[in-house]
Amino acid sequence: MDYKDLLKKLSESYGVSGHERGIYDLLKKEFEPISDEVKEDNFGNLIFKKKGTKGKYKVMLAAHLDEIGLMVKDIDEKGFIKFTTVGGVDQRTLPSQEVIVHGKKDLLGVIGSKPPHLLSSEDMEKAIKIDDMYVDVGLQKEEVEKLVSIGDIITVKREFKELLNENVSGKALDDRAGVVVMAVCLEELKKVYHYHDVYAVATLQEEVGVRGATTSSYNIEPDIAIAIDVTHAKARGVSRDIEVGKGPAIGKGPNIHPAVYKGLVDIAKKYNINYQIEPLPGHSGTDAWAIQVSKKGVPTGLVSIPLKYMHTSVETANMKDIIESGRLLAHYIANLPEELEGHLCY
Question: Would you tell me which of 36, 41, 154, 330 could form a disulfide with 188, CB atoms 3.0–4.6 Å apart?
């Protein structure tokens, strides 16, 4: 499988929280050859199962499919579309973006605001408020209203780009990069024996409350789970020890089971996989938060891909980190003992 091409396809697809279904066909096409079973649960999460040789225990992987975006809230008298946000959109990045309004048909538009020439010197020093922005699709109000309704979704139009040194940039790498990690893991597991059944779940609505992880972990009842997400990496003005290109970040803290953490670190050392440690003193802000407390509780880990410029349309990650994350998970699963009782004691 060409993982960079898969990430490109996923990044350029559109699936704001609650509207992820447009990516289902692509995911099924890519994951069916590396899965034994593919199903969709009641909430809409896509579950790709890889059977183990024993099948006594269940290992769950979770990476969220949804992305942040915008929603139509009004159409003014001149046909300009007013909007609000879905998820944690950084409104400072919105002016001058090309967008697609997903109405009765897709409409290309641009986000406009008052030109700088017409701003007061005081306003020039401030970030533009979302209430002062609008989408211009080039139509009059009557024409817009025939095609666009209140509540329709708007997404940023952005092409996936390859940068130097295996770095890549695009929208929604949070967390479509994590979905690619699951693909790497399942493909690696085809080459080795592993005792336990693996459930790789593309979860929905993480950006608005880890909802897909909540429902899927409740239904699957995993014995072990590992969430896959992105984490902030060192960048200009961002002081972090975690860096892009230096391997996956393994989470450590109260959201993480210590035996799962230790197992991931031990495997990284055993197979010479570069890794970084991410201290998480509280809420991890990921699907791991919901999975850990599902039903009777689930021993949960977290593997994160270092990412720059999170929640913008130019999120930047490194393909080596993505592939190494998948290898780490595959080796971890393949090295789990046949009996897990006692293995996961604190």
Answer: 330
The reply to whether 283 sits in an annotated binding site is no
pLDDT for 234-268, tens place per residue?
998 888 899 999 999 999 999 999 999 999 999 99
Per residue in 13-47, pLDDT (tens digit) is 999 999 999 999 999 999 999 999 999 999 999 99
> Could you say which of 206, 278, 315, 324 is catalytic?
206
Domain ranges of the chain: 3-67+171-334, 69-156
- CATH architecture of residue range(s) 69-156: Beta Barrel (2.40)
* 25 annotated among ligand-binding-site residues: no
pLDDT, tens only, 54-90: 989 999 999 999 999 999 999 999 999 999 999 999 9
232 is in an annotated binding site: no
Contact 61, 147 (CB under 8 A): no
Query: Cα separation of 316 and 168, whole Å?
Result: 6
* CATH architecture for residues 3-67+171-334: 3-Layer(aba) Sandwich (3.40)
Q: Catalytic site residue 206?
A: yes
CB 218 within 8 A of CB 212: no
Query: Does residue 205 come out as left (phi exceeding 0), alpha (psi in the -120 to 50 range) or beta?
Result: left
